[in-house]
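Field: COMPLEX_INPUT
Field: COMPONENT_COUNT = two
Field: RESIDUE_TOTAL = 508
Field: MODE = joint
Values follow.
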Amino acid sequence: MVLEFSKKSALKAFIAVLAVLLLVTVVVSPAAAEGQTFTEKFYQNFIEDDRYQYLLTGLQNTLIITFFSLILGLVLGSLIAVVRTVHDMKGKLKLLNLVCCGYLTVIRGTPVLIQLLIIYFVIFASVDIALVPVAIVAFGLNSAAYIAEIIRAGINAVPKGQFEAGSSLGLPFAITMITIILPQAVKNILPALCNEGIVLLKETSVSGYIGLIDLTKGGDIIRSQTYEAFMPYIAVALIYLTVVVILTHFVKKLEVKLNAS
Amino acid sequence: MPAKGNVLIEVKGLRKSFGDNEVLKGIDTTVCEGEVIAIVGPSGCGKSTFLRSLNLLEVPTGGQILFEGVDITDKSVNINKMREKIGMVFQQFNLFPNMTVKENIMLAPVRLKIMSKEEASKKADELLKRIGLSDKADARPSQLSGGQQQRIAIIRSLAMNPDVMLFDEPTSALDPEMVGEVLSLMKDLAESGMTMMIVTHEMGFAREVADRVFFINDGVIQEENTPQEFFSNPKNPRLKEFLSKVL
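Field: COMPLEX_OUTPUT
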């Protein structure tokens, strides 16, 4: 992941990127558009008719969709991972395991956009339902498949002796799993889970296909009104980047805390 | 057989296969309360598999294991309940790295509602004091030496007040200078009357502490005897060869 460098240098890099983008915006964009100054264009794209509202609403929807589909993905993904692990370790739950394997194959074998379109236009076709919940279901179901495999890999990476030590003390499988195995597994996979969250945040940018105003669509609407692509799209990119950098920062902190324990 | 007390474990015709590979080919033996059994044999002979079958970490493919009169191979038996009475110590210690030393010791008694938190805490303090590691109560396992970790693994099992303790090569993963502290704790345990079954390569320890020594080879117990007879007067030719190499 992008966590290789230290916190300070990440912040510096971010500021550098911001500075370069601003510079490019100031220097390039006035030259490209006849006569208009940077301030005028900024005004036209974001202030006039309260266009910044598209970005705000969009950002809000993007964050809501990301957050709730991540929760859905974690819950469903954990269940799938546990079913698969129990099957692999104890040979039980054959039918459920088969269902889970089928699910993983289908979800990971098709693009998320097609899944979103099918869920909205086929599955919920005859139901009058708000767009955001549909997107949450679609992205949640999608990320569950990836999260399940991340969690399963994390469980597999915990040494077998830990299970045996728990069992030999008389602890039932479920307690061994919850108190001994999963805490170690989560620590192992935290970077991967965070990465999945960031990927998810960016993947929600296809939500516009079902007419939902997410951040990307918000920028798109501004472009369609002002016939100016540069400002709104760069703004959208910067907002995504800022959110990702902030998230990465917090996960980094959490990781340091976990490593200390 | 030097019967010290009542029969605790009775093994009848125990068999275990991994695929086509039959590792245990019919083991019969009886262990009484308070006995200390050392199990020796060449690598891959099935001695660890035998020990791990006694608490069903390996599920036998045939035969019976009666623990305190209950056949634990019977599927209707709640094996977790039986395991509460069968402590086990592993070669790799297997302390839980996500918990402190004291949490390691308290986890099972508290989670299984055998003790209250206060009782378990008191018990953990007593046990830590007994092995002289009271100051490590809040340390993480990774901060301890191998010998310290293994001694804590032993008292973690003891906290459950088991009726028997199984040791699977408890000193094989230790630096030579740490072996002594673990063996001396095990000797104390034996002297306190704990029933113990120990898979080991420490022949000196087996001779000194065990009541009986088993020689397992080729999936069966080929010889069992008192340590004096076992080491000075072996009868089985394979055992003679084995002892000539390791002593």
